[in-house]
Amino acid sequence: MPPIRQKALINVDLGEGYGNLRCGPDEELLPLIDIANVACGFHSGDPLIMSSTVRACISHSVLIGAHPGLPDLQGFGRREMKLSPEELTAMTIYQVGALKGFLDAEKAKMNHVKPHGVLYGMMCRDIEVARAVMKGVPKGVPVFGLAGTKMEEAAKEEGVEFCAEMYGDVKYSADG
Fold it and tell me: How far apart are CA 108 and CA 64, in angstroms?
């Protein structure tokens, strides 16, 4: 096995709740993680949850990224929808912009964008979806995604920095 070139960073989805509903042990996870993907309101997350999640991440020195999803609160962003490229770009700008507002209020930086749920999967296999979402990512903000997919191809085409990630619960072959 080749030597490890850099530390593996732990990246977790946070702020996934709405109103009184909380979907995860965010406070317990924060001391253990390096990077957070904060739900931006379409699949989960509301203004108060986004605001408190940003403040909690800052207090734990956790890097913060936007976690935009399809407009599917009831299905938690896990149901595929057919949206036009214009809709996909606009919803990305809208959600990322919402998180940026909370980050600006706390004088914090947006570290990345990581699409949520079925949107992530759609971007991996559909170049048109991937291109449309990449057009909504602010200049200079990297996107986290799956290497070797249409998502990575679209990022390259659109001039968006791409950070390949891996999942701890997926079996990988010896070549990655």
Answer: 8
Q: Give CA–CA dist 88/23, Å, rounded.
A: 25
151 to 18, 39, 109, 126, 131: CA distances (angstroms): 28, 20, 23, 8, 8
User: Tokens representing 7?
Assistant: 């530390």
Give per-10-residue mean pLDDT for the chain (176 aa): 79 90 88 96 88 98 97 75 96 98 98 95 96 98 96 97 82 57
Task: Specify the DSSP element, H or E, that contains 116.
Answer: none
Which residues, at least 6 apart from 117, have a Cβ–Cβ distance to it below 8 Å?
A: 43, 69, 70, 76, 77, 78
The encoded tokens of residue 167 equal 């999942």
- pTM tops 0.85: yes
Task: Output the CA torsion 121→123→127→130 (10° steps).
Answer: 170
Q: How far apart are CA 99 and CA 141, in angstroms?
A: 13
